[in-house]
Amino acid sequence: MNNEHFMQEAVNAALKGMQNNEGGPFGCVIVKDGKIIGKGNNKVTSTNDPTAHAEVTAIRDACKNLDSFQLTGCTIYTSCEPCPMCLGAIYWARPDKVYYGSNQTDAANIGFDDAFIYKEIPLPYSERSIPFEQLAPEIAIKAFNEWTEKEDRTEY
């Protein structure tokens, strides 16, 4: 199997999800050792879950199938350049490589424009369209302190 084959599988996942009215036109497959071990498509509108993007659903599927929270040794094929949320999820999953089909501009041209998120990130918290404000750090730090002391934790 070559890269184009796996990209076609990602596009097929997008098309199938669209035809089933599950969400937007996005699909993703995750490959390890030449085999698809995870597949996903956008399911935002059908699940009322704004995090159910193709890459996230594919990562969840692959990790479940591998019984692991990391995708070391895997390659992600996604029908469109990942949005900021999916980009973060991909980095947390730690695959070896990502191939994408369409790009941010292609997505923006059909109404899926993530540019506003990229513009929000460098803004001071108080200037974001959704303001962020730190609250009770002395309470929140307790969980971090206990994590530091926890001897049986699973590092990631």
TrEMBL record:
The organism's place on the tree of life at top rank: Bacteria
Protein species of origin: Leeuwenhoekiella polynyae
Lineage, uppermost ranks: Bacteria, Pseudomonadati, Bacteroidota, Flavobacteriia, Flavobacteriales
Transmembrane segments: none
PANTHER family reported for this sequence: CMP_DCMP-TYPE DEAMINASE DOMAIN-CONTAINING PROTEIN (PTHR11079:SF161), CYTOSINE DEAMINASE FAMILY MEMBER (PTHR11079)
Keyword Nucleus: no
Gene3D superfamilies xref list: Cytidine Deaminase, domain 2 (3.40.140.10)
Protein name: tRNA(Arg) A34 adenosine deaminase TadA
Family per record: Belongs to the cytidine and deoxycytidylate deaminase family.
Gene Ontology MF terms: guanosine deaminase activity; zinc ion binding
Keyword annotations of the record: Hydrolase, Metal-binding, Zinc
Pfam families: dCMP_cyt_deam_1 (PF00383)
